[in-house]
Amino acid sequence: MEAAKVRAGLKPGEPIPKGMHIPWSENMRKTPRRIARLHARIANIRAHAWHPLTTDLVERFDVIAIEDLNVAGMLKNHPLARAIADMGFGEFRRPLAYKAAQRGKTVVIVSRWYPSSKTCASCGYTMPKMPLTMREWTCPACHTPHDRDINAAIN
Q: Which among 17, 22, 33, 38 would be 20 to 30 A from 70, CA to CA?
C-alpha cells in the first residue's frame, strides 16, 4: 500500500486524504485471494483430521461417551487458547453424532459437572474435595488405588 501511496504523490506513512482514490496494484489484488485460499486450506485440514478419527471411533465402539466441554471458558486461558481454537472441538461432536446414528451406535454426552475423576469406579464412593494437583488417590471406602485420568475414563 505504501508504494501505491508514493505513486499517487503522498509521503510514506501519510494518511490517505478523504475522497482520494489509490489504484490497487496486481499484488494488492492477489493478497485477499491468497488469504482466502489459506483459510480454506486450514478448514479442509481440520475437517480431514476429524473425519478419519470419528469414523474409527464409531467403527470400534458401540457406546461412545464424550464430555460436554466449556470451550468458551477454555478459550479464556490465553496460553492454551490458540491450540484449543485450532482444534475446533465443537466440530468433533457433529460428525461423531451423525456417523454413530448412521451405524446404530450410541453417543452419550457427559455433563461437565459430573464428578467422573472423583467417583470410585469400584464402589461408587465420591470424594468430597479433590484438588487438580492430586493425580493419584485411594478410595477411603474400598481402599482401591486410582489414577485420576484412568478412573475418569472408566466412569
A: 38
Q: Over the chain (155 residues), what is each successive 10-residue block's mean pLDDT?
A: 81 85 85 95 86 93 89 85 79 90 93 88 89 89 91 87
Total structural domains within the chain: 2
Q: Provide the domain limits for residue 70.
A: 2-114
pLDDT, residue 31, reads 93
Task: Based on the fold, state whether residues 70 and 105 are members of the same structural domain.
Answer: yes
**Residue (of 48, 10, 3) closest to 26 by Cα position:** 3
What single letter denotes the amino acid at residue 75? L
Is 147 in the same domain as 85?
no
Pairing mode, strands 106-110 and 136-138: unpaired
Q: Looking at the structure, do residues 104 and 91 belong to the same domain, yes or no?
A: yes
pLDDT of residue 1: 67
Alpha helices in 17-146 (DSSP H): 26-60, 71-74, 78-87, 89-102
Residues 135 and 14: their CA atoms lie apart, in Å, by 59
d(CA 46, CA 53): 11
Sign of CA dihedral 21, 26, 31, 33: positive
